[in-house]
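Quick check before the chapter quiz. The format below is the same one you will see on the exam, so make sure you can read both the input and the output lines.
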Amino acid sequence: MGKKILIAFVFLFFIAVASIFVSATAWDLSTALFDNVNFSILAQTSTPKGMFINPDGIKMFIIADNVYQYTLSQAWNLSTASYDNINISKIDSFSEGISFKSDGTKMYLVGRTNDLVYQYTLSQAWNLSTASYDNINFSILTQDTTSEDIFFNPDGTKMYIDGDANNAIYQYSLSQAWNLSTASYDNINFSVTGQQSQPLGLFFSSAGTKMYVAGNVGDQVYQYSLSQAWNLSTASFDNVNFSVGTQDTTPQGIFFNASGTKMYMVGLGNKQVYQYSMSDVPADTCTAPSINNNWIINIADNCSSTSAINLGSGLILISGTNGKFNINSNSNITAHGKQITCSAVGCQMIINSGSKIILT
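Here is the expected output.
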C-alpha cells in the first residue's frame, strides 16, 4: 500500500513539474522565435488575407481571391506543406477571415463588401471540394464596417470578429452551436487602439484565456489575457508583443497549434506562410546553451564568447535594448543553417581580431 502511495505521489509531482515547465513558454509571445521555415503560396495567389489549420495540423487553408487547401505531410511542420490543387470561389470577393467547425464539416468566411459572415457545409470533413453555401449569413455591419478576421470557441457557441474600422474585437453568442442563424451580438467589444490601428489577424488560446492580434502598423503580434475565459469584457493587454517585420511587413492572419508552442503567420508582402516556436530556452543569460538550443540575450549587457562555440541548429538572438554580444579573439561561432540576429534598438555584435561567424 505504501509503495502505491509513493508511486502515485511521484507521478503527480512529475505531472505538476511538467505542467509548470510547459506553462512557462506555451502561449507566451515573449519567448517566440522564427523557425526559419516558410512556405510560398505565390503560385496560387498574390493576395493572402487569412489562414486556418485543422486540429491535427495536417490541413491548411488560405483565404485570398479564392480559398485554397494544402496538406502538411508532417503535422504542424510547414516545410512539408504542398498544395492540394483544390480551391473554391467566395460569395464575397473581399472576404478576409476564415474559420471552421472543430470537426471540419462547417466553414465560415467574413467579408468586407457587405460586412457579413457566411456559413458553408463540407460533406467530407476538411475537403474544400465538397463545400457548399448554406444560404445562411449574419450581419456585423452595426458593429464594424471593415471586418478582417473571425474566430470561434471550441464548442461553437461564441464568435469573435476583428474590426479594422474601429480597431476593436467584437463578441457574439450562438444559441445553437455552429448555427450562424442563431447568432447575436453580446454588446461586448475590446479596443486594441492602444496597440494597433490596423488589426488584421485574430486568434485565441485553446482555453480562451489568451488573445492575439496581428497588425500592419509596426508589423507586430500583440498578446492579451482574459481573466474569465472567452469573456472579452475581462481582456487586458499583457504588454507583450512580437515583431514579424523581418519576415513580412504586412502580416495578415495568424494561427497557433493546440498546445500554443507553434505560431504561424501569413504575409501579404512576400506571399508566404511563416512558422515560429515558443522557445523553452531561458532568456537573460550570458551562458552559452547546449548544442541545438537558442541563445537569447534580452538584457542590456555585454555577453561574450571566450572560446569556440558550436550552436548546431540553434541561433543567437540579441533582442534586449542596448544588448551586446562580444566575440573575443580567436573564438569562432558556428551555426548550421540558422542565424545570428541583432534585432533591438542599440544592440551590437562585436567581432574581434581572429574571430569568425560561420553559417553552414
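If your answer matched, good. Confidence is low (pLDDT under 50) at residues 1-24, 281-285, 319-323.
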